[in-house]
Amino acid sequence: MSIDSLPPLREVIATHELAAQKSLGQNFLLDLNLTAKIARMAGDLKDCDVLEIGPGPGGLTRGLLAEGARRVLAIEKDPRCMPVMAEISAAYPGRLQAINGDALDVNPLEYLTPPIKIAANLPYNVGTELLVRWLTPPEWPPFWVSLTLMFQREVAQRIVATPGSKAYGRLALLAQWRADPKIVLDLPPEAFSPPPKVNSAVVHLTALPEPRFEADAGTLNRVVAAAFNQRRKMLRSALKSLDPAIEDHLNAVGIKPTERAEQVGLEEFCALARSLHKP
Ligand code: SAM
To answer: Which CATH number fits domain 217-276: 3.40.640.10, 1.10.357.10, 1.20.140.10, 1.10.8.100?
Structure first.
């Protein structure tokens, strides 16, 4: 059963000649029941504007609209998708605005009204960069209330990882500092067309009203980036470039200078960021 009166996605792709382009990370979801299910994972959309990055042939866009999103702003780099967006917009009058551009260059706040949720089957090449941007604005709470995002499963595991595990690192710390991330759906390669080489997963992140521990976002981001860039090194050498007196800072906040980043928890990293912060 279709979720709306628009043509099936295979037909949309054939009509608009949307052969997938690898350079744009195009792996399309063609099952509208699945895209509606992902839209439902974003929670109640009725009183929310939704930002979608990379709508492609519009499966998730249609899911979000069918699930009742107040408005959807879809930012898509591939100009071939714009006529498809126009057709969807005609079926949902006044509720879809599509912009042909790079999501990294567009300020969504010029177009959306809070409360805002973000939902996307992200292009893998820009996915982590966008996530880090959404998690590290100087002020908190951010412009969004939740993120419902498709990632490669390995990236999803890095977002929810805990200390001591191989996947633990910068993404886990930034995500868990200011949000509550959960893997809510696993998807095999066959769910996409063309199938990617790896498994995928949907991660749902709810913004916390305030960060779990106080820290300056820029400083914390720099500390964890440096710590995990050389994750096998002891922190006193991995973090040396941040401050010549790094050992004093580590000792002052109770982290052993000989410890490795993998063993250090969020609360300790936040304490170190506070100690190193220069306003
Ligand atoms: N949402 C569609 C779906 O689920 O079938 C498409 C997902 S596909 C993995 C990623 C989409 O992001 C593609 O349509 C691609 O053209 C678009 N894209 C790639 N880089 C982008 C960027 N920097 N800004 C906006 N869209 C981008």
So the answer is: 1.10.8.100
